[in-house]
């Protein structure tokens, strides 16, 4: 499968995951009777079944009959789901949710969901029983991702690693041979100072070598480099042109951090939160800047559901821009004269009555679908790339509020 096709598949899968997570977040249970199980890809299904069997047995000690019954029913439902899997879970693992959720008026209904192959591998087995389903680990996987190189250094030590999404990965470290400021007896101050500067220069070259070896092969994927340490050190390092020029060009910030061991990498990420937040939406900003440029400078932009749908059907859309906060359905209506029309409504609303705009006849609903899934399906068939746009900046908000959360950059002018 091509890279473009893989990206489309990832976008769709992430959106489908996000939809399910939003649904799960709405559920509430009475007491601790909603069960969540995270299963990593290397955990044998038979081990998980044994664990669930043990939990089912221990649940018999729950004093409340209703809670006991609900927990055991949830565990039985999960156990039944696991029968569909062989020795190991699918790639990246699986997450299972089951429990009696409140439907109002003191009534409950049993809900069971399974999410296969999440965006990132599940790291460890986790069994969770509470009044809410545990979705935080999945939400972290779906958070805006980025790949940043991390460097922390002072004149004694240095550490180099990655920030992948929200995960810090230490990779390389080094200790310096830079002598302290006090010289040994018999050395002139001038000679000592020269030796010390040479040792500092050698250490900076060693640190840059580690960073270059790690980051340069990923230079086309990396979103930026963050550098941390005491003020004189990090400034000397960056001003001395030690880094490969392609890395120096993508240094997005330097920050004061107190530690330069592995914990310093985490401190660096904490100190850089504002810069990282800006970086996460930079690509979205670029997409929206191009959209507005096309919109104001010609006819190679489209917005709103119906014009965008028509342009998609023609294969004229290069990139489909969808707001991350779009929560709507498209309802398809057909009248007795076979006129077909579309109406976009809030996902929480019932189907409205519809009158055909061509003949004035009452129309009947023929289908209702999530508008994002509907548009993405057309986009995939026409080779159109889909971009989800954050509302964390002004033009992203405009896409949602002023353009209905739907827009596109065209390959050519269509007049629609």
UniProtKB/TrEMBL annotation:
Gene symbol of the encoding locus: prf1
Cellular localisation: Cytoplasm
Similarity comment text for this entry: Belongs to the eukaryotic release factor 1 family.
Any one Gene Ontology cellular component term annotated for this protein: cytoplasm
GO terms, molecular function: translation release factor activity, codon specific
Function summary: Directs the termination of nascent peptide synthesis (translation) in response to the termination codons UAA, UAG and UGA.
Organism: Haloquadratum walsbyi J07HQW1
HAMAP family: Rel_fact_arch_1
PANTHER family, per the entry: PEPTIDE CHAIN RELEASE FACTOR SUBUNIT 1
The organism's taxonomic lineage, starting at the top: Archaea, Methanobacteriati, Methanobacteriota, Stenosarchaea group, Halobacteria
Residues in eRF1/Pelota-like N-terminal domain copies: 5-143
Keywords, comma-separated and alphabetical: Cytoplasm, Protein biosynthesis
Protein name per Swiss-Prot or TrEMBL: Peptide chain release factor subunit 1
Family annotation (Gene3D superfamilies): 1.20.5.170, 3.30.1330.30, eRF1 domain 1 (3.30.960.10), eRF1 domain 2 (3.30.420.60)
Pfam family, one: eRF1_2
InterPro entries documented for this protein: eFR1_2_sf, eRF1_1_sf, eRF1_2, eRF1_3, eRF1_Pelota-like_N, Peptide_chain-rel_aRF1, Peptide_chain-rel_eRF1/aRF1, Ribosomal_eL30-like_sf
Subunit details: Heterodimer of two subunits, one of which binds GTP.
Superkingdom of origin: Archaea
Range of residues in the leader sequence: none
């Amino acid at each position: 499968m091509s890279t473009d096709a893989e990206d489309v598949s990832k976008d769709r899968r992430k959106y489908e995951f996000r939809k399910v997570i939003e649904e799960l977040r709405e559920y509430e249970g009475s007491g601790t009777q909603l069960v969540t199980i995270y299963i990593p890809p290397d955990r044998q299904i038979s081990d998980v079944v044994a664990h669930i069997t043990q939990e089912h047995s221990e649940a018999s000690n729950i004093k409340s009959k209703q809670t006991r019954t609900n927990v055991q029913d949830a565990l039985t439902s999960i156990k039944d789901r696991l029968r569909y899997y062989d020795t190991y879970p699918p790639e990246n693992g699986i997450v299972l949710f089951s429990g009696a959720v409140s439907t109002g008026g003191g009534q409950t209904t049993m809900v069971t969901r399974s999410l296969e192959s999440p965006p990132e591998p599940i790291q460890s087995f986790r069994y969770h029983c509470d009044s809410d389903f545990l979705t935080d680990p999945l939400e972290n996987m779906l958070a805006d991702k980025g790949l940043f190189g991390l460097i922390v250094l002072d004149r004694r030590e240095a550490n180099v690693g990655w920030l992948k999404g929200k995960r810090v990965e230490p990779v390389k470290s080094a200790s310096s041979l830079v002598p302290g400021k006090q010289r040994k007896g018999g050395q002139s101050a001038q000679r000592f100072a020269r030796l010390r500067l040479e040792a500092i220069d050698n250490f900076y070259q060693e640190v840059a070598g580690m960073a270059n070896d790690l980051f340069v092969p990923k230079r086309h994927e990396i979103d930026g480099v963050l550098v941390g340490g005491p003020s004189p050190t990090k400034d000397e390092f960056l001003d001395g042109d030690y880094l490969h020029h392609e890395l120096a060009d993508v240094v997005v910030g330097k920050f004061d951090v107190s530690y330069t061991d592995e914990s310093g990498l985490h401190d660096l990420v904490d100190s850089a939160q504002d810069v990282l937040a800006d970086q996460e939406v930079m690509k979205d900003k670029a997409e929206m800047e191009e959209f507005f440029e096309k919109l104001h400078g010609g006819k190679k932009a489209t917005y709103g559901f119906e014009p965008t749908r028509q342009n998609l059907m023609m294969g004229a859309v290069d990139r489909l821009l969808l707001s991350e906060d779009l929560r709507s359905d498209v309802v398809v209506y057909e009248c007795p004269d076979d006129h077909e029309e579309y109406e976009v409504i809030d996902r929480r609303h019932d189907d409205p009555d519809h009158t055909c705009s061509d003949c004035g006849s009452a129309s009947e609903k023929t289908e209702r679908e999530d508008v994002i899934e509907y548009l993405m399906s057309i986009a995939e068939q026409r080779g159109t790339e889909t971009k989800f746009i954050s509302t964390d900046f002004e033009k992203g908000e405009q896409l949602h509020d002023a353009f209905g959360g739907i827009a596109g950059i065209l390959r050519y002018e269509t007049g629609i």
